[in-house]
Write a structure and sequence with these properties.
Layout: H1 4-9, H2 19-31, H3 44-51, H4 55-67, E1 71-74, E2 80-83, H5 91-99, H6 103-127, H7 130-145, H8 149-166, H9 170-187, H10 198-213, H11 217-242
Antiparallel strand pairs: 1-2
Length: 243
């Protein structure tokens, strides 16, 4: 993605320049599909400067991402660090992650995400132009055509981050990326025999986009909040089944 998402991903870190913080920022963007498979990262000097970290710190972070299988290094002319899209998520790992979150924590995350996504949708309805709406429409289509859990998760995340970008707010974009990194993967995994409804998600995304295209900020907000709420309620119910 271009514009605000990329500026957020490669912008200055506000929570310290530790190796794990740098690795989490870039790794999260790769996991959400905001940096695509095969894409070359900026050079180490350029990336370190944009993140405002030392080159040594950046190199250690990139090394950690290579160990995770999210980057590969190519030597020689035209070489550098290239993105590798992660494989399909493990249901066992996701079940374990869900088990680490109590219903109250899930509700808190949901409240935060509803506030962010709702505000972004309202502002997008007020500020987005035809070009940005076209981009959002393509993202809805990407979700409809996604055939694997990983593809659906990434398409879903890109749509929500795209709305924040259309709202022309770096803060909302940063918050949406963080929230998608926290909870987005769980929303799409079949857990305890419960499978997410792709058709319903596509319909809800389309409804949010229609409200944005029509400039109806309050309806866009309401639909975005309802969409987030449905996903969180499902996770809370699944979490209770694990106990």
């Amino acid at each position: 993605m271009t514009g605000p998402p990329r500026q957020v991903i490669f912008g200055p870190l506000h929570d310290g320049g530790r190796v794990e913080v740098v690795a989490r920022r870039i790794g999260r963007a790769i996991g959400l599909g905001l940096i695509t498979d095969g894409e070359q990262l900026p050079s180490e000097s350029v990336l370190a400067e944009s993140l405002r970290v030392s080159t040594v710190t950046l190199r250690e972070a990139l090394s950690a991402l290579r160990d995770q299988g999210l980057l590969e290094t190519r030597r020689g002319r035209g070489g550098g660090s290239f993105v590798r899209t992660p494989g399909e998520p493990s249901a066992t790992r996701m079940r374990a992650l869900l088990g680490e979150l109590c219903p109250h924590e899930l509700r808190e995350i949901g409240d935060h995400q509803a506030a962010v996504s709702g505000a972004a949708a309202k502002l997008a309805a007020e500020r987005a132009g035809p070009e940005q709406c076209t981009v959002l429409g393509k993202l809805v289509s990407h979700l409809a055509m996604a055939s694997t859990i990983g593809e659906r998760r990434r398409a879903d995340a890109r749509f929500h981050v795209g709305i924040a970008a259309a709202a022309q707010s770096h803060r909302l974009t940063r918050d949406e990326i963080t929230l998608q990194g926290e909870i987005g993967e769980l929303l799409w995994l079949p857990v305890c025999g419960d499978n997410p409804d792709l058709g319903s998600a596509v319909e809800q995304h389309s409804g949010i986009l229609t409200a944005i295209e029509n400039g109806d900020g309050e309806l866009a907000r309401a639909r975005a909040e309802a969409h987030v709420g449905q996903g969180i309620r499902r996770l809370i119910e699944l979490r209770r089944r694990l106990t």
